């Protein structure tokens, strides 16, 4: 067994130096552990600061949400789709259809609202509905929604609106489209209501004039401000959603602004101010508004071709 003695470690008494080394190692380990714990707590605190709070806040009745319509809730412009429906019902002729088609093409390709084009289409729409009863256009609007608008609602934006509704908050559309059209869309989506451009009517008949001006740009902000005062809302706790830089005044009013499918100017503005962004478009570069997906162009071209073919068949 003596031959195996070298395999067995010898018991040695601890010297003062070895005791000192052991205690120093233990102290260093303890300090390292405390440092690790402090670093972990700091990381958790930073993460908690960066983490977005739960939103919308359930039960906050002084908060509400305001959604732009065109290209935010729905692909394209509501008034253009409404025009297609009126053409189908022979409210106007092929020449006006061509103008609507061109304006819709511009809207889809540019991804922004051109003031001159929007003014032109509003004037066209007013001249078309002049002399018709409001009740008649409301009834037709219900049909047009099913024909041209229902399938163009962005599911992502619809889910955002539903989150506010589920939290017990009111949700309003805010749009330059006619208030009658906007109201139909809001009702179909289960929203609270709509703010839209008001066309003058006398004894239930359209006169072909507007009450004030179109609900566009700064006018939207004023409408939201007025509704918030009437509804006793705290705008700092409200949210607003839009795709267009024209709606920056409205977005700037609320404490929770969202850029949805933003145009180039709004995207830049939103990033500079750390606003939240959502982009639900497909076949497009998220960082730049460019040519829409081939399917979108094809659908537009197909719709125009179908209208022309329909006109020829009628002749």
Description:
With 315 residues, the chain is an alpha/beta fold. The chain contains 11 helices and 8 strands. Strands 3-2-1-6-7-8 form a 6-stranded parallel beta sheet, with helices on both faces. The protein has a two-stranded antiparallel ribbon with strand order 4-5. The N and C termini lie far apart (118 Å).
Portion of residues within helices? 40-55%
- Strand element count: 8
- The helix/strand order is HEHHHHHEHEEEHEHEHEH
Mean pLDDT figure: 79
The quaternary organization reads as single chain
Structural class: alpha/beta
What general outline do the C-alpha atoms trace? elongated
| Distinct helical segment count | 11
Low-confidence stretches: 283-315
Distance between the termini: 118 Å
- What integer value in Å does the Rg equal? 31 Å
Beta-strand percentage range: 5-15%
Identify the notable features of this structure and list them briefly:
315 residues, elongated, alpha/beta, 6-stranded parallel β-sheet, two-stranded antiparallel sheet
